[in-house]
Amino acid sequence: MRNSIIAQYLFSLSLLILLLSECGGALDTVYANQVFKDGETIVSSGSTFELGFFSTRMSKNRYLGIWYKKISLCTVVWLANRDTPITHNSGMFKLSSDGNLEILSGSNTMVWSSESTVSRGSNSSVLRLLDSGNLVVSEMDNYKNIIWQSFDHPGDTLLPGMKIRKDLITGIGPTMEWNSWKSPDDPSTGVYTNILDTNGYPQILGLRGQVVISRLGPWNGLGYSGLPIDKENPIYNAEFVVNEREIYCSYELKSSVVQRIILTSDGRTRMMHWIERSQEWIVYGDLKVDNCDRFGLCGPYGSCSINKRPPCTCLPGFEPTSPEEWDVSDWSGGCKRKTPLTCGDVNADRFRKITGVKVPDTRRAWYNVSMTLEECEMACRMKCNCTAYANLDISSGGSGCLIWFDELMDIREYDADDHIYIRIAASDLAGQQIDPNKKKRVVTSVLSFSSAALLLCAGAYAYRKRKNTLQVKDQGDFEYALDKKNTSVQTQLLGDIPFICLYKVIKATNNFSVSNKIGEGGFGSVYKGVLEDGQEVAVKRLSGTSQQGIEEFRNELISISKLQHRNLVKLLGYCIHGNEMILIYEYMVNKCLDSIIFDETRSSMLDWPQRFGIIHGIARGILYLHQDSRVQIIHRDLKAGNILLDDDMNPKISDFGLARKFVGHDSIGKTKKVVGTYGYISPEYAVHGRFSIKSDVFSFGVLVLEIVSGKKNKEFSHVDHSDNLLGHAWRLYKQGRSIELINTSLHASCVVHEVIRSIHVALLCVQHHAKDRPTMFSVLLMLVSESDLPPPKQPAFFTEEESTSKLESDSSLDEYTITLLYPRS
């Protein structure tokens, strides 16, 4: 699932069905011929799930279903009579003597049956609701002999342990598909279906009616092609099995979290995670993230990329079938070969390796698990209609063979290890030889904007710098010159971020008026602006004297254009014109966190519940960057000044100028140029230039201690010792006095156990060695759970006078290195 996996903390009422259950007596086992009526329930042995009759929020119809018992917002995971509801409260449910489940109306009319039977005598079967959420009919004297189970008949929800399966022995598979509800309040079968398609090489398809609208790429040994690989996933194990007996996909939880996969009534497949503290479901992963997830958007032999505009291009050796249609953004006709293949001559054609792609639709593919890649190529060469080949399994260097016949459909670009060999004419391959010197040159493609945009801007304003101001004149006086330093900015990773004319930016900021200025940093100045539609924005303008701004601009634009999360500041647009390089963000009413928590007067604006919520929001945003975004992002400059607050005091992480992205398994970087902000940088980064996700974890720990105490780490002082804030928090923890760290303005609102737990988690985050620090996923779970926490080790940069000589030496080295850092204001 996309890590997309504790991705953006979205709470959707449309995904939560509020039940009006009238629970009476609770049973844990039902025997043959035993009946229970509307108002009674069956409860799993561990009280995880409950089965009974219920109505949805907007209907009086009664359904028999299973829901979570201990979750306050009751959520249905399975229904029996979804298409045959009872219209009154007189329903009955029973297990017949032959093992058949039946739902009867008040007139004893059967409205639903499991159609399951056992050949033994009366009272030989028993019904149980397991802690997994599986409703099971089995033989009374042998529970392992299952007659019928609800896991074989899913509705819109997949639970851990449930298999989407086809039995290759019998040729049938009752769980080859699952269906959406018709609407959030109508559980009858909807128009959306996910199926395990076993034609060619198995894959999961999303349908609307009979039309394929999405496709989860085939299993490649590490994960599903087209989805980021879960690196050391602490929550669940995904499994995909193809053997001589069966084909199935499943997942199992590795922790005590509550999760489910739901196909929503609007056709989205989401993995949901229950947060007990906030009493809400959040989206851990979403299989559909952008337009490139639409099946066949770019047609045959077309490739989709959200980082290109337009998103569709033809594969090497191909060209648009209808250039006229492509000119009007209709790519459904796809592409055709530039040069026809020569069938029968195995040396006339060549194969072009395409890396970082979601492999094509495999319904017209053939596979062999034992062939090598060389054997796979030869097999493809011998077939005139073979169009491509690839490894079946990309783990451990690659193995197996996957061959495509006829058209290649539904390819998309993404950062991953998947690659495919496309068959093209030798002449086309020869015409695409890459200049070997290009590998030695730095990619410096110009971030240009369309000629149409330039013409519109040209007719609207004149650009001329005079004494650091811009004079807007009539359309007859237009100047444009692309400054050389802008040529380092890339364009291929912008996604859907719009270009905004400089004229509109000037108008929005009142010609960058000093009265509109709301901040300033190493990048340049930030202005408040109002666009023509009335939307308030923050305009970040590169300073003409900034030495870091150009690289930061490029890095921030490329990084944040791929990110969407409620706890990340949203980039609304950009502008490049001459020497002007500008980013336009959503406007945050309450500005940055440090302007509040470090101000004696304004600090009272944030009580403890608000600060605790800000801590959680920051953690969720960092987790998204580290695990759930398309590419793994390490921010490298997390600090109170880069946390913005909206009008509801929700935190938004900003300033991605120093961020670094990682692809695949390489998640540790090293640099000779250590940059960041004093007081937030981890020791391994300061001393050795090594940074990883644990560097951000360290910065988060510092942030938490600053939020709790209202004191800056780098400016902290105490009359009894010379420690920084980390050292002071460590002293108090060892003495059992952590609560004394809290800011005086929070005494009236603090929740003591939350404060102490937050400090404890922060100390775990700022431990000296990166390997000792938790991941952000563990941090979030520790913050929302009440389980025991491991004891923290000594924090980094701790300068207790009684330290050993070794620690003093390490500390002095750290301090020496830090003094050489470039602090970003």
Question: Your description of this structure?
Answer:
There is one protein chain. The protein is of the alpha+beta class. It folds into 4 domains: about 15-290, Agglutinin, subunit A (Orthogonal Prism); about 295-435, no CATH class; about 450-585, Phosphorylase Kinase, domain 1, CATH 3.30.200; about 595-825, Transferase(Phosphotransferase), domain 1 (Orthogonal Bundle). Helix content is about 15%, strand content about 30%. It contains 14 helices and 50 strands. The strands form 15 sheets. The chain has a 5-stranded mixed β-sheet with strand order 1-4-5-6-7, with no helix packed on it. A 5-stranded antiparallel β-sheet has the order 29-35-32-33-31. It is globular, with a radius of gyration of 30 Å.
Average predicted local confidence, pLDDT? 79
Largest sheet: 5 strands, mixed
Report the radius of gyration as a whole number of Å.
30 Å
**How many domains in all?**
4
**Structural shape:** globular
Residue runs with pLDDT of under 50 for 5 or more positions: 1-25, 431-495, 800-825
CATH C-level name of the largest domain: Mainly Beta
- In total, the number of strands is 50
Write down the CATH topology of the largest domain: Agglutinin, subunit A
Strand order of the largest sheet: 1-4-5-6-7
**Terminal-residue CA separation:** 38 Å
Give the name of the CATH superfamily of the largest domain. Answer: Bulb-type lectin domain
